[in-house]
Amino acid sequence: MGPMAGMVGAVLLGIIAAGLLYQWTGSVRDRRRFPPPGRLVDLRGGRRLHLLESGDGTPAVILEAGIAASSVSWRRVAPAIAGFARVASYDRAGFAWSPRTRGPVSARSLAGDLRTLVEAARVEPPYVIVAHSFGTFVARAFADRFPNDVAGLVLVDPVVPAEWLEMTPAARRRLRGGVFLSRVGAVLAAMGVVRLCLDLLGRGSTGVPRRVSRLFGSEAATVLARLVRQVQKLPPEVWPVMRAHWSRPKSFLAMADHLSSLRRSAAEIAATASLGDLPVVVITAGSHPAGVRADHARLAALSNRGRHVLANEAGHWILLDDPAVVIEAVREVVDQVRRSRGGAR
Length: 345
What we know:
52% of the residues lie in helices and 13% in strands. The mean pLDDT is 88. The radius of gyration is 21 Å and the shape is globular. The chain contains 15 helices and eight strands. Helix 6 runs antiparallel to helix 11. It has a domain at 39-166 and 276-340: 3-Layer(aba) Sandwich (Rossmann fold). The protein is an alpha/beta fold. The protein has helices at residues 3-33, 78-81, 107-120, 135-145, 161-165, 169-190, 193-202, 207-214, 218-231, 239-245, 249-260, 262-270, 290-300, 318-321, 323-340, and strands spanning 39-42, 48-54, 60-64, 87-90, 127-132, 150-156, 280-285, 306-311.
């Protein structure tokens, strides 16, 4: 190795060391600034999940987030629900304040995790489960595995199994690319690159983050822009929390776990039975085409007490674009359950 190569190697090692130190000090600072707002509940096998509760009254309402989302995504919904029921949001393993666990995940295994969590936390069934996007797979798996524990469902812009079971070759490539980019993101987060980009975005500087994302193709740049727009729909006071969470490798590894098992989850839900006479409200974003609306109407019809609602002014993130629609749907299902139980609260 010549002198120039040795010098370049030393510079690269110095940059990597600086990035690792930047990431470590930032992580320590984040843990002090953003402690868990709820409690970390001990599960079997030494595992823990973060659970945030408020309000009182039965039935309890459980909030199930989208594929890479967490309890934070319900900030515009949970406080209002707490005004008329006990409401609990949580973080699946690897997201937000929940530690990551290794091993495959699927809708049914995640439903089992949720059951273990609510039992350990002494949240009494039956529950009204309110789920968004991929979370609707988990909610439906829970209702299939533990039917006596579910009093009603609110499915917010749900995914449908056919979307992932009948994929085109291009869609399969995009999904594999998503898994790959998630794993790359974990490496970049460990080296402090993600933290630097998110810190710059938080200060209004977009140049470096855009250049970094473009290194991985136009799809990565598009995903980054979409994620930034979604985070900006949350209350501004939680933006630093989201930056802290997505500066950690575990968030990207958890996302890779979920994406890599997406088709398995879809197959599990496709095999589930009807929803019988369970009170169900399915909410569809007004931005969707007629085909998606029809799919959601068919999902609502799986219950003879199902209802389909169109959120005309909302995109996929209805819980952020039009939280009032979600809150009223939850109130409707909770009231139905209480009437069937003789008005108990």
